[in-house]
Every structure is written in C-alpha cells, then in structure tokens.
C-alpha cells in the first residue's frame, strides 16, 4: 500500500491509567505496584482503529506522556496513516527536541498503533504482515527481587502457569543472597533450568566485576545491566572480566544508541525495547543490526507486540514476560510449555477490557 493509498488519520483517544500488577515488582531501583500506562487508540477514515500502549515508568511522567502523545497525534489529523510517512513527519517536526525520553516514547506508541491498524486492514496478525509466521516464542518469567524462599514459591507458581525459564532482579545488599536465590530456583525447577539476573544499573564497574564473579559459577544465561545503561565501555570492561555473558539494550534510545553499544562490544546479546527503540519501525532496524552483528535478540516488556516482533527477528532468542498491561487487555499471549503464543487476531491483538479500565479510571 503506497502513501497515497493509506487511509487518513481522523482522531485519537488517549487515556492515562495506573494498571494494577498482580504482585508488587521489586528491583534494585525501587518497587512497582501499579504500572503507569498510556493507552492509545488512533482512528482512520477507513473505520479501522489501531491500538497500543506506553509505559511511563513513573507516575510523575504519566500525564505529560499522555498529553504529548495526544498533541503529536492532533498534528497528524488529515495526514496519511502510513508509518514511514508519519515517522518522517514527526522526525522533521521534533528534530530539535532529540529522539529520546518522552518524545521518543510517544512517537513509538504512535508507530505501534499505526502498524496495528495496517495489520487489521490486511486481516493478518502483525507477525504475518511483517512477512513471517506466528510461531510460539520461547519465554521467561521476569521475577521481582525477593529472598530465596519467596523466590522459590514464585517459581513453583510460574511452573504451574507454563514457564520454564526465569529472570531474577538481583542486587541484594549481600551478594551471596543473589547466588542463594539462583540455587533456590534450581532446587525447585531443576539444575538445567534457564536463569538470568538483572541488576538494573546498580553498580560502578569495579563493584560490578567483583559481584559478578561471585555468580560466575552459577551457570546464568546472562547478567543484565550491571552498570549504568549508557556506559557502553563499562559494560565491555565488565564483560571482558567475567565468564557469564552480559546483556544490555532495554535502554537504547533508537538505533543510534544500539550502534554505539554494538561498536563498544558492550553486550553478548541485544535487548531492544519496543517503546524506546522506535516501535515496529525502529525494531525492524534493530533486528537487521542484530543480525549483522550476530547478536541473539531478547525483548523487553510489551509482551503482546514483542511476541510478534520476535517472530520477525532472524536472531530471536527469548521473550521477556513482565505483563504490565495484562489486567487491562482481554487477550494477552498464551503461555504453554515454556513458550508464548502470539495472538492470532488481526493486528497486535490488543483488545481493551473496558470494564477493567473503567474500574480504575474513576
């Protein structure tokens, strides 16, 4: 479909909500009890509405992100809904602000909603619109920071729900507790279970190396963001001083940050975030760069769209399961025997649970 053939954007509905989580999610940087989400619906003159959502991380940024998203879409009314055209327009209009932060989030959300609309028009799931099948994707359950006994109980429950791989939020004051948590998981799920550990940028390089060496004998799939996300050289130094693979990428703002990280050899993998990398359009660029650099790709958050995007990623490895919108979405991907099944509905598969949304919107 050419730009001229694309339907026009006619209106939008933007809602800022605090989506309750099933369990509080504790990390080295804080505890999340409800996810601040911006729900996006963009309507076109062909009667199709594309949907997506954004995660503002903190309630302080929720209303500003919602307002910015609304203002950007208001400026697109009457324009083509073609994602490439819209990306070019927004890049031109917002270039002086820089492609990061709330602006980048808003543009990504618009991009995702427009791709959802295109897939709905084609009557295909997004993964098929992108030219691939919709196969089950290997998945891990992303757990919060908990002591060993509590972690073991959570893993038992996750196994019942179909998970076979796990990531912990590490960074306990006593580094030996991190190792004890890993062993507690193995006691429940078996010695060969896949486990990764996320440190959420908690340390400087020297402390990271010291702490990561304690975990080197635990057989972890990766350690994630041991130092500040933008310290690509620091990640490379940590990586060169430990045996466990290093993961980073969830905080790349667009393809430029990914290129810097790849050039620095900061990571053994790539972990683009659909919201920060540039939506579907940005993910496709990241996927190509990961393939060129021979980097296996994992996703970050946004389970609905990420299950589609990984299907279209040649070096796809695993999907992160942290279901921040599940209480508001009527049809999240199904978990079965360690894999997530993307929605077979046209589009991304986001269908809002309007009753649940109204119950938290006051």
Describe this structure in words.
This protein is an alpha/beta fold. Helix content is about 40%, strand content about 20%. It is built from 13 helices and twelve strands. The chain has helices spanning about 60-75, 85-95, 100-120, 125-130, 150-160, 175-190, 205-215, 230-240, 255-265, 275, 280-290, 305-310, 355-360, and strands at about 10-25, 30-45, 50-55, 135-140, 165-170, 195-200, 225, 245, 295-300, 315-320, 335, 340. Strands 4, 5, 6, 7, 8, 9, 10, 11 and 12 form a nine-stranded mixed β-sheet that branches. The protein has a three-stranded antiparallel β-sheet with strand order 1-2-3. α1 packs across α3, α2 (about 85-95) runs antiparallel to α3 (about 100-120) and α5 runs parallel beside α6. The model has no long low-confidence stretch (mean pLDDT about 95).
């Amino acid at each position: 479909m050419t730009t001229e053939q694309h339907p026009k954007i006619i209106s939008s509905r933007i809602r800022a909500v605090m989506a309750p989580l099933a369990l509080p999610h504790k990390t080295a940087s804080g505890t999340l009890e409800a996810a601040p989400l911006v729900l996006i619906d963009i309507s076109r003159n062909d009667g199709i509405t594309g949907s997506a959502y954004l995660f503002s991380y903190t309630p302080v940024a929720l209303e500003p992100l919602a307002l910015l998203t609304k203002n950007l879409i208001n400026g697109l009314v009457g324009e083509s809904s073609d994602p490439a055209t819209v990306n070019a327009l927004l890049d031109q209009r917002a270039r002086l602000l820089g492609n990061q932060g709330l602006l980048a989030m808003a543009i990504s959300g618009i991009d995702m909603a427009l791709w959802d609309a295109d897939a709905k028009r084609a009557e295909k799931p997004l993964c098929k619109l992108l030219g691939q099948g919709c196969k089950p994707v290997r998945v891990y359950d992303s757990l919060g920071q908990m002591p060993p006994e509590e972690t073991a109980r959570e893993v038992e429950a996750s196994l019942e729900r179909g998970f076979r791989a796990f990531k912990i939020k590490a960074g306990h004051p006593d580094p030996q507790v991190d190792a004890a948590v890993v062993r507690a998981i193995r006691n429940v799920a078996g010695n060969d279970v896949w486990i990764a550990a996320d440190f959420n940028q908690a340390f400087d390089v020297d402390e990271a190396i010291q702490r990561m060496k304690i975990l080197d004998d635990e057989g972890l799939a990766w350690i994630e963001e041991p130092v500040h996300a933008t310290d690509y050289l620091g990640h490379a130094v940590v990586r060169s001083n430990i045996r466990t693979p290093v993961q980073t990428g969830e905080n790349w703002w667009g393809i430029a940050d990914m290129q810097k990280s790849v050039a620095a050899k900061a990571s053994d993998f790539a972990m683009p975030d659909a919201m920060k990398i540039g939506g579907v359009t940005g993910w496709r660029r990241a996927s190509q760069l990961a393939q060129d650099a021979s980097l296996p790709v994992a996703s970050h958050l946004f389970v609905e769209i990420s299950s589609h995007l990984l299907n279209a990623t040649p070096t796809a490895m695993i999907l992160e399961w942290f279901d921040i919108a599940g209480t508001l979405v009527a049809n999240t991907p199904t978990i079965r025997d360690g894999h997530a099944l993307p929605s077979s509905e046209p589009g991304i598969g986001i269908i809002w649970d309007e009753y649940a949304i109204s119950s938290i919107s006051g």
